[in-house]
Amino acid sequence: MPVTLLPSLRGAANRIRAHPYAIGGYACTFNQVFRRGGVPTIVAPGAFARAIIEGDWHLLLNHAFSPPSSPSQASTVAGTLHVEEDDYGLWFEAQLPDNPDGTRLMDQVRRREVCGVSAASHNLTVMEVNGIDVWSAMETWEISLMMPPNRAACPGTFVFPNLSARRHRLRVTDGSSRRKQGDVSHDCFSRGGPTP
Q: Domain range spanning residue 81?
């Protein structure tokens, strides 16, 4: 699937990239089959378009948000999170907190101990096509880094330190690293996965 990369990222992306605790990756991939409650499911391109325009997005751990014990790690309002869609999926770049928790999380990303990334799915618009549920729109406001033993449901998600993530983005979007449809490619990278 050809992908048109945006000529410049919106918002705070360039400031985020300059930070030593910058990460990036895909929180969801389009047109790749996964199972939700045993039902074959895909997310359609454009599913996040409205949420990106209207939402205040947060980066969480394992979809948990209950300050102060489970705070947001980054947000669009704070200028520490950038989200956008391309033809491959939901791309994000984030600046982790400059504190001991952020340092520990950045080390886990560098060691590839994060088991993929997940975008929350709320108020879905779903249609069935040939026995597959197609999610064409959803209201969401958060992306989560999935920590062991949790896993991302959607195949092909990843997170790396920002520069490595952007290099890997170029590889997956030109097709050279695309996993075959339905392949489970969101395992912990410490156990084998894409090389940044």
A: 13-31+56-121+142-174
The answer to the question of residue 133 being in a domain is: no
Residue 99 CB neighbours (<10 A)? 10
In terms of phi and psi (left: phi > 0; alpha: psi -120 to 50; beta: otherwise), the region of 62 is left
The verdict on residue 95 lying in a domain is yes
Cα gap 35→96, rounded to integer Å: 31
Predicted local distance difference test score (pLDDT) of residue 124? 78
Quick check: pTM over 0.90?
no
Query: Considering the chain, what percentage of its residues have pLDDT values greater than 90?
Result: 34
Nearest by Cα to 143 from 51, 35, 69: 51
The domain tally of the chain equals 1
CA distance 18 to 41: 37
Output b/e per residue, 141-179; b: 16+ Cβ within 10 A. Answer: bbbbbbbeebebbbbbbbbbbbebbbebbeebbeeebbe
